[in-house]
User: Which sequence fits this backbone?
């Protein structure tokens, strides 16, 4: 007998055919097809669940083959398919099982079907693989409002599965579930609560509109963390497809996320490379993948090890991370906005107007060298912050909602320009230049400043992307000279000749 299920290799799903055959010999149950420990232990779970159902299999030899045999099976998700195949072999289920039905779920000893990590990406993969119906356990964390196009039958026990296959009424179906309402986004942060830092707020608005990376450098207590933690309030909410991607990654990592707001990840600076990038014996998503479609905030960025920081090169450049292990090689999406924060020197007060810096130029140089040149090149905006004088009069403060509306309008212009949901910070540079070419004078201006400041080709590309986003926020059709000047100013904040001689 053959029953279908879904296997996962990272976010990629593939068809698993569960073959069950009864053979003469000593009573036993053998599972083959490169099962890991969790799949091998399915034998005891399935035997106990079938015994609770009223089917005793301890007097025959059964061989269960998980095909394709060359791929390692690493999840208890195949328990239900194994049990259905055995019931067919034993004659307890006479109805033929069509090949377009997939079975997902882990079995308890009493026959209850339980969800496991990775259930949501497996259901989404089933649709892509051509399955017309999926039997799976009910999980209240599923975004049912986005799964209406998938014929998913939710079952709680093995007995319910058999009843459904025999033609009895479906107890829980996707069509019978009420459409869930996305809860309103709740946050106690708002840009109107942040006094001063007008230039930094505008820079973060540009970063949100075009998905540009930002590095903030300033003394302790100047507001770096506050700005970074408030930044998600001006980001647009996730689209349906993006939310499904994010929830799938969170399920694979064993974490929960219940709304459509962009994820915000804030790992400690002592985090290991495995925690940041992902990995383990069975590779799991790391912080860069959990920040997919959202924000990765690295506070005290210079305190992370140089090896760990350099691992950010691939996800920052390609929007994905590849993890290679002996058991498998998986690729996870890692399309995020990097917000970094660091002190200007070891003591933190280099350039401060309030306190004296006690660090030598050599110490400052060594401290800033912890972030390598390639990482600096992959950052679009360099911000220099100072503590705000609260006694002075400041401008009228804007609410995050007002800024977010401008960001959404700029994003919409980009989506229309490129014909897909992609921003200036991610679109291929050839497409960007074809849609928004620089004038000859602008090209000469950029080349002049690039030669003066020793900017690499990657940095020049970043400046063009920034200029296009600034022009979008200003509702300009082409890249203006003003937008190009502002973009170059964002890159030159921490690269003046004087500060470079001091160790930058």
Assistant:
């Amino acid at each position: 007998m053959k029953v279908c299920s879904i296997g996962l290799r990272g976010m990629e799903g593939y068809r698993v055919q569960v073959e069950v055959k009864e053979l003469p010999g000593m009573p036993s149950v053998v599972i083959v097809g490169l099962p890991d420990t969790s799949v091998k232990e399915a034998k005891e779970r399935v035997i106990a669940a079938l015994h609770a159902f009223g089917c005793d299999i301890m007097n025959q030899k059964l061989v269960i083959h998980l095909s394709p045999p060359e791929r390692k099976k690493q999840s208890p998700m195949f328990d239900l398919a194994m049990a259905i195949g055995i019931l067919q072999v034993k004659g307890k289920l006479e109805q033929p099982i069509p090949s377009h039905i997939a079975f997902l779920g882990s079995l308890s000893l009493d026959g209850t079907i339980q969800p496991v990590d990775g259930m949501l990406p497996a259901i989404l993969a089933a649709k892509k693989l051509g399955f017309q119906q999926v039997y799976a356990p009910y999980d209240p964390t599923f975004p049912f409002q986005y799964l209406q196009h998938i014929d998913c039958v939710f079952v709680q026990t093995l007995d319910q599965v058999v009843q459904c296959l025999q033609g009895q009424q479906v107890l829980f179906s996707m069509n019978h579930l009420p459409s869930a309402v996305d809860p309103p986004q709740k946050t106690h942060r708002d840009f109107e609560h942040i006094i001063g830092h007008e230039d930094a707020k505008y820079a973060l608005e540009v970063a949100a509109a075009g998905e540009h990376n930002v590095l903030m450098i300033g003394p302790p207590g100047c507001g770096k963390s506050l700005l970074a933690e408030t930044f998600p309030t001006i980001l647009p909410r996730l689209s349906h497809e993006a939310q499904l991607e994010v929830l799938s990654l969170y399920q694979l990592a064993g974490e929960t996320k219940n709304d459509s707001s962009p994820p915000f990840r804030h790992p400690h600076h002592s985090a290991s490379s495995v925690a940041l990038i992902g990995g383990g014996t069975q590779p799991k998503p790391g912080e860069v993948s959990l920040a997919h479609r959202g924000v990765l905030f690295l506070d005290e960025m210079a305190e992370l090890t140089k090896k760990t920081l350099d691992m950010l090169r691939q996800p920052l450049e390609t929007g994905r991370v590849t993890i290679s292990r002996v058991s498998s090689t998986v690729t996870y999406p890692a399309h995020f906005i990097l917000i970094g924060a660091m002190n200007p020197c070891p003591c933190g007060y280099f350039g401060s107007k309030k306190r004296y810096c006690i660090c030598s130029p050599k110490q400052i140089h060594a401290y800033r060298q912890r972030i390598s040149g390639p990482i600096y090149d992959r950052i679009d905006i360099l911000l220099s912050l100072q503590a705000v004088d609260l006694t002075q009069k400041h401008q009228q403060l804007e609410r995050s909602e007002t800024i977010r509306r401008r960001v959404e309008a700029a994003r919409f212009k980009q989506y229309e320009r490129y014909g897909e949901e992609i921003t200036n910070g991610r679109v291929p540079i050839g497409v960007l230049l074809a849609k928004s070419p620089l004038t000859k004078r602008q090209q000469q201006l950029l080349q002049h400043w690039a030669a003066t400041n020793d900017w690499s080709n990657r940095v020049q590309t970043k400046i063009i992307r920034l200029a296009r986003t600034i022009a979008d926020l200003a509702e300009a059709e082409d890249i203006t000279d003003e937008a190009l000047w502002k973009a170059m100013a964002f890159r030159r904040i921490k690269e003046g000749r004087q500060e470079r001689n001091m160790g930058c």
User: Anything to note?
Assistant: The longest helix spans residues 400-418. The two ends are 68 Å apart (CA to CA). The chain is about 35% helix and 15% strand.
